[in-house]
Amino acid sequence: MTTTAEPTTERSVPKPVFTDAEAGAKVFPDSEARRYNYFKPAKRKQSHYEDVTVEVQPDPRHYLSQGWLYGFADGKGGYPLEWTALRAWGSDRPVPERFAGSGGQGYEWPAHGWHEFRDPNEEWELTLYRYNSNVVRQLNQNIEAARQAKAFDQWNRNWVQFVAQHVGAWMHVDHGLGLYLFANANRRAPTNMHNNAISVNSMHRIRAAQDLALYNLTLSEEIEGFDGSAHIETWNSDPAWQGVREAAEQLTATWDWCEAIFAANIVFEPLVGELFRSNLVQQAAPSNGDFITPTLIGAEEYDFAERDLRYTKPMFQLLVNDKQFGAENKKLLQQWLETWVPRCIHAARTLQPLWSQPDAKPPRFEDGLDRAKSRFSAILSELELTAPKELGQ
Amino acid sequence: MSRQSVAKAHQKIQELSWDPVYHEPVSHYGTDYTFRKAKKKDPLKQVLRSYFPMQEEKDHRVYGAEDGAIRGNMFRQVQERWLEWQKLFLSIIPLPEISAARAMPLLFRTVPNPELHNGQAIQMIDEVRHSTIQQNLKRLYMNNYIDPAGFNSSLRNFQNDYCGTIGRQFAEGFITGDAITAASIYLTIVAETAFTNTLFVAMPAEAAANGDYLLPTVFHSVQSDESRHISNGYATLLMALSDESNHQLLERDLRYAWWNNHRVVDAAIGTFIEYGTKDRRKDRESYAEMWRRWIYDDYYRSYLVPLEKYGLTIPHDLIEESWNQIWNKGYVHEVAQFFATGWLANYWRIDAMTDEDFEWFEFKYPGWYDRYGKWWENYNRLATPNGHHPIVAENVDYVYPHRCWTCMVPCLVREDMVMAEVDGQWRTYCHEACRWTDVEAFRPTYQGRNTPNMGQLIGAREWETLYHGWNWADVVKDMGFVRDDGKTMVAQPHLDLNPKKMWTLDHLRRMGPVQSPNVLLNQMTDTERAAFQADYNRQGPAGRPAPAKSA
Q1: Average pLDDT over chain B, rounded to whole?
Q2: What separation in angstroms does the CA of B158 have from each of A64, A342, B163, B166?
Q3: Are A23 and A34 in contact (CB under 8 A)?
Q4: What's the rounded mean pLDDT across residues A217-224?
Q5: Tag placement on chain B: N or C end, fewer CB within 10 Å?
Q6: Is A100 exposed, middle or buried (0-12, 13-18, 19+ CB in 10 A)?
Q7: Average confidence (pLDDT) over B302-307
Q8: Does this model's pTM top 0.90?
Q9: Read out DSSP for A180-211?
């Protein structure tokens, strides 16, 4: 056999070169200095989370020697500390003045107390995508299994309507707060640790909203007569939901980012969110033949209880225990409680008619509210705050 | 649920938004643009149900490659010349990314279209992804590359170094000022749509040619999110275009955003690609060739020009001028030369150019050697300490430049430098377009129109001012660019890690003090200043002093 040799031309490609540029190849000053050296870790050792998070958002009181370069129309740049009335130690120190020959030194790390916050969930991209992917995959599987088992056929008529109207209505709360409170607040806080935790919180809420919306779409396809748009009418005009809606809108209208997070995660969620999810839907669903809806609601409950509340508590604990402004902060948080507790109790109470709607009744509304209040009081005690008298309403 | 089509699912999630009846959401940010409510569609129809697993899958690929790189000893083949420049790039880029996340809320109240808000929220979390995945890449470099100095102090360095400050505009421009100017025009319409091509596609390709396949792994993964962001920007732009009163502001903002991006991104990325590579194949694209393809053809001709059918005047003159700067006026070469002149104020090592580099530059940029060759030979001659000063304080026919008050890159194309007295201070600008940005665009009125939401240029914008009169050794110490023996500098004008060849603070003590060009400018009389400008405009190329006037 003969072969005809094709004329070959050498392809133009970069050539590998042995450079021996790997760690340890030589010894010289700094050759072993393999730690980010511009911040002090919260614990003995720097965590991976800290390495990818801390100091990405600069601070002119710290290393940012030339200051912020672009300002709003009022001349303020960056992330002004006065965007919240709460203060952390050092907040009252002025930004170091720069002038000819001033040098570039700021204050010692951490410059002020805001930088001491660490998200206990240690959220960064790897963790947030893993977590949320697991949730959506599991929910999809649960719903698909239920669909194949024709599990929705076992729901009684009233429960079908309850899910269409009321479970559906909750998606609007998630969406509104996710976008216009939490995503909005990710521009407001003075450190990257705060803003990243807040943006992850935002995605939990937006994901939960979409989980409910797409579940609603499946139910429209699977259950004859399921009204996939009933949630809109319920949210817009059912009197039982107007207290929740008013509170949710009021939350998104809050100027102070700390107040908005505090009111949402410390007050609204325990008193209204968990009341609705854990003390109504989760309790009523099984006895009405529904084992699917609790898996969605349970996922959101975990988001809040084990992730979002988990970062919110240390965020405010630091401020309550602040060495310079602790007492002042505590006073302001108490005032915020006096403002938001009545609003949320009102929202909770307007939901009361929902408890009588399923055929198989959940535990009494008052019992559920008592449980919610007791949980709320426990959270307050962790923050060394006192439940205001309005909680008794 | 999983069987539903994306279009159907996306349609369903439009039911989530509602018009408030009790309280309006807080309005933190203002704009001088006007928008009417419009049902502009989110073209990419992203739903979180599919978004999260998609991103997780992308992560698997990225982190798998990172493991592979370490196990396969990638750093035995990485070019130090290349990776040193990553100390600058990766110190800057996580901030623009996270700033893009922070910018999204600027659009919530100003662009009345809930469907777009959904896409903006996803962009927000994409940007958190980008920022932390890049910090993680830098951490990997720090742990596995021969010289961790500069990586290990990265986020302090970029905050107090003049190069970091230049790069910081690429972040701060997204988050302050008029909400639409910042978060839409500057960020999505110009920075993301035009310049991420060179940042996240062209530059990683050069990394691969220098033995580093992790930069392409991470940045191509990042770039795969950018198409969604570009769509966010385009949908907002079309809404803005539908109101003719916005055209004047759009034209202003396109001019500012285009020119600033050109000044900042082309300075940095052009330098990395041209001066950070060891790949000198004649058929590999130069930065100018890449720019022509990615930015001139793909962005300008395919994206910007078609906007004229909506009645918008796009800044043809500035785009042609940017090309003129890159091709005829040596913008990238002037910047690289300046970075190397000021090596001692940086936190990475800059390799000298060799004969092979000279040949490539001459081939790609005819006339390069006559302009820059001699200076680079001097750079090489002065690279290791041997009784002389660093090159900035030696006589190598180079006049230390003034800074541009607007873009903060020095005024390197000397003939273009202009001046203005603003708020009682004389300022230099690298080009008329930068003077216009400060003096006319960033003002509460524009061409007689009130623009109360327009931002301001603030801050101590000339780095040298801070250290006016200081000894260089104290400057470097103040910035913290010193290794763990307390005296060897992080920066070096060569790649030799033999401690005997490395510069220390002691070498700098003998130099004269730092002089702030801007402080000196403001000490001049009007006559002296006019003479100074006339002389400056006659300087160059390559920073050469003005030729003596013939009698």
Answers
A1: 95
A2: 8, 48, 7, 10
A3: yes
A4: 96
A5: C
A6: middle
A7: 95
A8: yes
A9: IIIIHHTTTSSSHHHHHHHHHHHHHHHHHHHH
Which residues have a Cβ under 8 Å from the Cβ of A251 and sit 6 or more positions away? A177, A181, A260, A263, A264, A268
Which residues are CB-neighbours of A356 under 8 A, at least 6 positions away? none
Per the CB < 8 Å rule, is B152 touching A98? no
Q: DSSP assignment, residue A353?
A: G
Write the residue in B9, B24, B457 that is nearest to A217 by C-beta: B9
In which band, very low, low, confident or very high, does the pLDDT at B502 lie, cut at 50, 70 and 90? very high
A200 neighbourhood in chain B, CB within 8 Å = 125, 128
pLDDT of residue A3: 61
Q: State which residue of chain B sits closest to A222, comparing Cα positions.
A: B1
ipTM value greater than 0.90: yes
Q: Tell me the Cα Rg of chain A.
A: 26
| Averaged pLDDT, B337-358 | 98
Distance separating alpha carbons of residues B266 and B288, to the nearest angstrom: 10
Nearest CA to A297 among A183, A166, A190? A166
Q: How far apart are the first and last CA of chain B?
A: 86
Residues of A in contact with B29 (CB under 8 A): 72
Q: What's the angle, vertex CA A39, arms to CA B99 and CA A110, rounded to 5?
A: 85
What CA–CA distance (Å, rounded) separates B414 from B517? 14
Q: Do B121 and A178 touch (CB under 8 A)?
A: yes
B278 touches chain A (CB under 8 A): yes
Residue B1 has pLDDT above 50, yes or no: no
Confidence bin at A4 (pLDDT 50/70/90) = low
If pLDDT is split at 50, 70 and 90, which confidence band does B283 have? very high
